[in-house]
Amino acid sequence: MLRMPSFTRRTFAATMLNTTLLQAQPNKTKIDGALRSGIAKRKIPVAVGMVASPNKVLYQGAFGTRDASGVPVKVDSIFAIHSMTKAITTVAALQLVEQGKVQLDEPVSKYLPKLAKLEVLHGFDQAGKPMLQPATKQVTLKHLLTHTSGFCYDNWDAQMFRYTGGQQTAEVPPLMFEPGTRWQYGQGIDWAGRLVEAISGMSLEDYFQAKIFKPLDMADTSYIVPAGKFERLVTGYRRQENGPLLPNERALPTPPKTFGGGGGLYSTAADYTRFMQMILNQGQGILKPQTVASMQMNQIGNLNAGKLKSFKPAISSDVDIQPGHTEKWGLGFLINTTAYSGGRSAGSLAWAGLENTFYWIDPKRSLCAVLLMRFLPFVDKEAVGLLDDFERAVYGV
Hints:
By secondary structure, the chain is an alpha+beta fold. It contains ten helices and 14 strands.
């Protein structure tokens, strides 16, 4: 919980003036111009942006087309948000922690027996055979939520990429390191999602709808895109080797047989903004204020987060959104330890989705923002460039 400091009269006056300036209305013309000119210059098919204070939408704008047919995109267009799902799964797991149904530091094998006897990869022998040994530590929910469990995506981990040969298929893959000893982005929050299902007795779709989406009026967020909303769905693109983006086939997504805690949701800018506003509002009945405070704190100690070397360049470029700076991980969010030049404050919360959907929550300025695009590879230089254009315009730079 944040404590109310003792103010002198001068400090109080300065603080009130600063707060007024920070909460000033973003310049719609400036942000519109940044997005409109940005997608044209960068040849990005579509971008939808939204900015909000804890209780009010301060900016919204939609630019580009829904697909190759030329139908204009709208503010309520639906995007695949991929790993932006992770923060929502984290909130669900923390609700169960608040209810005393699971503890952050207890072994998750109590609820997920498949994780009771995990193995750790210790390299490969001369014949290229994996050298596996039993893990000496049990994986906890905190490990899963902070990407310190040892479960890794083969997109961004050299050992995992070699182990899978680029084809990740094992239901319970080995750990790439002992739990708690490294930060490496991976499937930990997928397992946290399975834990939510195991404890609640509900599918993630049903749990999210009942416990998060309906209370927050997130009516367009789901793992399933109904036929009646297909016209609002934005089609994805892939960058070709020779440079241009080509659209995927436009089709209604097949409903998944299972729901992943690490990705899979579809949403809109307005819906995700409501989720971020809940965080700015210290839980808004979804979580307790002290739980939200824990999400905003460094939970990985001396480890660093957020830097990823890609081994599948068609899927993702190397990830280093704030080069030269150190980042941490809370519960569900990346935390930047230094302010962005012309942008978010130090201590802001953020993450993204695979097809270049981005968000950040700036508690110090009582502001949140989301930028939705839909193309691969992740953190393509043009996508990151447009994100920077958008963020600088949001902060008036």
